[in-house]
Amino acid sequence: MSARRDVFQAIADPNRRAIISLLAEKPMHLNGIAEQFDISRPAISQHIKLLEECGLVRVSKIGRERYCQIEASQLKEVAEWVSVFKKLWDKRLDKLEAFLKEVK
Prior knowledge:
By secondary structure, this protein is of the alpha+beta class.
């Protein structure tokens, strides 16, 4: 396995975000994931490989199939980063609400 990639790189692509959403519902095999997209099976495999390198997906081989399972704990870094901006927007929206009440 190559050096671990950045989790933000994984979520930068809409197809990878969609794969993460699918796997958040249940583990799936690669063909099941590929059936959900209009891109090639090799392209899905490349997305899965990157997600695995980022630690967001664990791939297990069972028989001839490769099953993918989400490792959601890796998204904690993203949640922590986003929370800073959520607090900022909450403050701004609170100020807007107060201003709108004053204007009425």
